[in-house]
Specification:
Number of strands: 13
Largest sheet: 6 strands, antiparallel
Structural class: alpha+beta
Radius of gyration: 52 Å
Distance between the termini: 98 Å
CATH architecture of the largest domain: 2-Layer Sandwich
Helix content: 55-70%
Shape: rod-shaped
Number of domains: 3
CATH superfamily of the largest domain: GAF domain
Length: 515
């Protein structure tokens, strides 16, 4: 029968055993006191004893009532110390651990406080505290033990409040795992029907049984630990939410700052575009006004040249040497003037071409002529310090919008000229491969860092602060893409940069004729 009771659940027997021993000792103490009082009365003498016999029960009852409370505590402490080897003050322990748990919002600190309290009072081996690891399991990281949160051992004791559960005769996956680790009882830590953790304890290091005082301390400690763990989890959730909100605010603030910078850059670009449009109209007007005088100069120089030629033929053999010399000088000066006037007319035509918005039409375009036209316009920027090295291969003429191609080449050559500080070289090359033609512009400047190469085609990105909008290469890249080609950059620090334009000879219809 005793084995069956122990096998059923030792913890159910422990309160009965403790209470039985307690009342037995208390009864023995009271009986001994009563017998002692009677003995003292008899020692006084027969006469006195007979006189006091009526008063002994009354006096003894008063004495018992007066000392019952401290006597009960003393007897309880004696029973716990002798039979269950309990040597701690439960009330002082609860008060101390309560102060620690209430003041802590850190889960690890709470776990350390609970383990330390148990080690100082009961010294169970092992002493595990399994805490939620996600939604589906609880784990003691130090021991490497985990159990499922929906295990029957834990689900069988719902509701708030901590309770001590013996693993004797308990059959579940969690019970088997804990028993294998040496655990004999568990304390589910619940708050409002939610499991916040599990205390899993083995036998006491002293070998004594868990007494009523131990079980009471475990329940109290379990309740306080559960509340503390819930508070810590709530605080962690609020802190995480606050951090997330701060990160989102910082992200939105950064996005607003970037948008503001982009708007400022766009505003600057629009202002510059408006200036360029006004400049284009001004250049077109000036070119028109200059074109007529240049035409008159050309016509007049031609007349002077023709007149001087006829005069020389008329005086052939009949003019003296000074006259012949004057005629030759006149013809030479007329030729120089004609060359200058023709060059001025060509510059005027090229300025008109760059200032005029070309219609969206594409036709076979001579890449060599387009490059030379752009180089002539930039001649004043590089003539005293930069050498142009030309490598023109015979390539087919791709179908392009001439105005857009001029804009692409102007951006590439302008960047190459600006990249060279002092003297240097610019290599211009045209070649064909497969069904594509290529234009490569290489400068002898300082080159472009690898981390910057990925951004050179981004709108508003520039390495020349205050000198540009950062749209030149972005626009060039977009224009080349509209022609079905691409624009690539290759560079290494200290070796210059090479920009290569690839244009298909036969662009796809959707690209060749954009809507």
């Amino acid at each position: 029968v005793a084995y069956a009771i122990l096998k059923r659940d030792l913890l159910d027997l422990d309160p009965l055993l403790t209470r039985s021993v307690f009342y037995a000792v208390l009864t023995a103490a009271v009986t001994a006191g009563y017998v002692l009082l009677l003995g003292l009365a008899s020692a006084v003498g027969p006469g006195a004893a007979s006189g006091l016999s009526a008063w002994v029960p009354f006096l003894f009852t008063l004495a018992v009532v007066a000392v019952m409370a401290p006597l009960r505590h003393a007897v309880q402490a004696l029973v716990d110390r002798v039979f269950f080897r309990t040597r701690y003050d439960a009330e002082a322990t609860v008060e101390a651990v309560s102060r620690t748990l209430v003041a802590s919002l850190d889960r690890d600190e709470i776990a350390s406080s609970v383990r330390r309290t148990l080690a100082e009072t009961m010294a169970p081996t092992p002493c595990l505290l399994l805490l939620p690891a996600g939604e589906a399991s609880l784990r003691d990281a130090g021991a490497g033990i985990a159990v499922a949160a929906d295990d029957p051992l834990l689900v069988a004791f719902p509701g708030p409040g901590a309770r001590v559960v013996s693993l004797v005769s308990k059959a579940s996956p969690a019970a088997r795992v804990l028993e294998a680790a040496g655990v004999t009882l568990v304390v589910p830590l619940r708050v409002e029907d939610r499991l916040e953790g599990i205390l899993a304890l083995g036998p006491k290091h002293s070998g004594a049984l868990y007494g009523a005082r131990d079980l009471g301390l475990l329940r109290t400690l379990g309740n306080q630990a559960a509340v503390a763990l819930r508070n810590a989890a709530s605080y962690a959730a609020v802190r995480e939410l606050t951090t997330t909100l701060e990160e989102r605010v910082a992200e939105r603030t950064g996005a607003l700052a970037r948008t503001h910078d982009a708007l400022l850059a766009t505003q600057a670009h629009l202002a510059r575009a408006d200036k360029l449009a006004s400049l284009g109209r001004l250049v077109a007007g000036i070119a028109h006004e200059i074109n007529n005088p240049v035409a008159f100069v050309n016509a007049s120089v031609d007349l002077i040249h023709d007149a001087a030629t006829r005069l020389r033929e008329t005086l052939d053999g009949n003019a003296d040497a000074p006259t012949v010399g004057i005629l030759e000088q006149l013809l030479e000066n007329a030729a120089i003037c004609r060359d200058g006037a023709m060059r001025a007319a060509r510059i005027v035509r090229e300025l008109s071409a760059f200032s005029r918005v070309a219609p969206e039409q594409r036709e076979p375009t001579d890449l060599r002529a387009a490059l030379e036209r752009t180089l002539r316009l930039l001649h004043g920027e590089y003539r005293d310090r930069i050498t142009i090295v030309r490598d023109y291969r015979d390539v087919p003429h791709p179908r392009c919008n001439a105005g857009e191609l001029d804009q692409v080449l102007m951006n590439l050559l302008t960047n190459a000229v600006q990249a060279i500080q002092g003297r240097g070289e610019i290599h211009v090359r045209t070649y064909a491969e497969g069904g594509d033609v290529f234009v490569a512009v290489r400068d002898s400047g300082p080159g472009i860092a690898p981390e910057i190469q990925e951004r050179v085609f981004e709108p508003f990105f520039t390495t020349k602060a205050g000198q540009g909008t950062g749209l030149g290469l972005a626009i060039a890249h977009s224009l080349v893409a509209r022609h079905g080609g691409d624009l690539q950059v290759a560079s290494a620090p200290g070796t210059g940069a090479t920009f290569t334009v690839r244009l298909p000879l036969d662009p796809p219809p959707a690209v060749a004729e954009p809507a």
